[in-house]
Amino acid sequence: QVHLVESGGGLVQAGGSLRLSCAASGRSFSTYIMGWYRQAPGKEREFVARITTSGDGIAYADSVKGRFTISRDNAENTMYLQMNSLKPEDAAIYYCNALGTGCPPNDCWGQGTQVTVSS
To answer: Ramachandran region of residue 101, left (φ > 0), alpha (ψ -120 to 50) or beta?
Structure first.
């Protein structure tokens, strides 16, 4: 099973930017479909973005389209989420997820990284 560690969260003003990273270890990172999800206080965890194994297939939640960019570096076993034009409603704990061998849906998660956006 893959081990995931997120980093890059923090406090930013509305309109600012942050870049999240998700470092993977264990089984071959390049074989996993990777995704970002987030959970705000009192709300369910929601999908943010997903990227296929080679990076040629990407999907975003409507709420982040045009502002967030997901990417991955299979040589570095790392996935990224560039977040621009941040809004207060983007504040949440952001989690990375792996889907593939040994990682069925909703099974392989990192510990999360907190993003706080001040208005």
So the answer is: beta
Q: How far apart are CA 15 and CA 118, in angstroms?
A: 9
- Taking only the tens place, the pLDDT of each residue in 78-112 is 999 999 999 999 999 999 999 999 999 999 999 99
Q: pLDDT tens digit string along 45-70? A: 999 999 999 999 999 999 999 999 99
Report which of 38, 36, 10, 6 is spatially closest to residue 22, judged by C-alpha positions.
6
Task: Please report, in angstroms and rounded to a whole number, the separation of the first and last CA atoms in the chain.
Answer: 39
d(CA 35, CA 110): 11
Question: How many other CB atoms are found less than 10 A from the CB of residue 61?
Answer: 15
* Residue pointed to by tokens 């990407």: 58
Minimum mean pLDDT among 2-11, 21-30, 33-42, 78-87: which range?
21-30
Q: Is 48 exposed, middle or buried (0-12, 13-18, 19+ CB in 10 A)?
A: buried
CB 22 within 8 A of CB 82: no
